[in-house]
Structure formats: structure tokens, C-alpha cells
Amino acid sequence: MTATCGADGLCTCSPGYHHITPNSRCFRDVGLGDTCEESAECLVSSAACSLGRCQCEQGFSPSEDNSKCIGNGKHFTSPMTLLYIVQKRT
Q1: Of residues 49 and 89, which shows the higher confidence score?
Q2: How far is CA 70 from CA 1, 8, 41, 76, in A?
Q3: Is the pTM of this model over 0.85?
Q4: How many CB atoms lie within 10 A of CB 80?
Q5: Cα-Cα end-to-end distance for the chain
Q6: Each residue of 39-48: pLDDT tens digit?
Q7: Domain segments of the chain as ranges
Q8: Could you please report the per-residue DSSP string of the chain?
Q9: How many other CB atoms sit within 10 Å of the CB of residue 64?
Q10: Which Pfam families match (predicted)?
Q11: What are phi and psi of 79, to 5 degrees?
Q12: Which of 48, 4, 7, 5 is nearest to 30 (CA)?
């Protein structure tokens, strides 16, 4: 079970899971370098599931402790960001 729902209809993700937006399903918590099945599992901002592992997106590098993705100073828009913008306009 990945979520618990109360009598009020509000659901919260179980420990080890998170949601992206309200009313979305719960995704496993996956850190950088760990195995994943989809990008929504990656907890770190600017990370995506690539070749079965959470990795920093293009234009970002992992911090020394793998806790975050750090921009390399170049401006880069990820495909996921573009998809979000296109969906919001339609």
C-alpha cells in the first residue's frame, strides 16, 4: 500500500513514497544513482530516470554527496519542462 486515506478523503503517501502534485499517485522515493522505472520516482530536482537509474539531467552534475543536481551555469530547458509549458497553454 503506497497511500493512506482518511475519512475526510485526503490521502497521504506512505513512508518511502512521495507525490508530485496534489491528487497524483504516490511514487517510490529514489535517490541519485539508484534504480528507477520512471522519472517521477527521482526525488532530486533536475534529475530523471535514464537507463534505469536516477541521473542529473543535461546541464547538471551531481553534488559530491549525490544529494542534489547542480547546474553548470549554462541555461538549459529539459524536455519535461517544455512538455509542461505546452500542456499548460492548451
Answers
A1: 49
A2: 33, 40, 19, 12
A3: no
A4: 13
A5: 35
A6: 999 999 999 9
A7: 3-89
A8: --EEE-TTS-EEEPTTEE-SSTTPPPEE-B-TTSB-SSGGGB-STTEEEETTEEEEPTTEEE-TTSS-EEE-SS----HHHHHHHHHHH-
A9: 7
A10: EB (PF01683)
A11: -60, -35
A12: 48
- Amino acid of residue 54: C
What sign results for the dihedral spanned by CA atoms 40, 42, 43, 44?
negative
Spatial neighbors of 14 by CB under 8 A, at least 6 apart, are 1, 2, 3, 4, 26
Report pLDDT for 85: 43
9, amino acid identity: G
- pLDDT > 70? residue 75: no
Identity of the residue numbered 89 = R
The C-alpha atoms of residue 37 and residue 34 are separated, in whole angstroms, by: 10
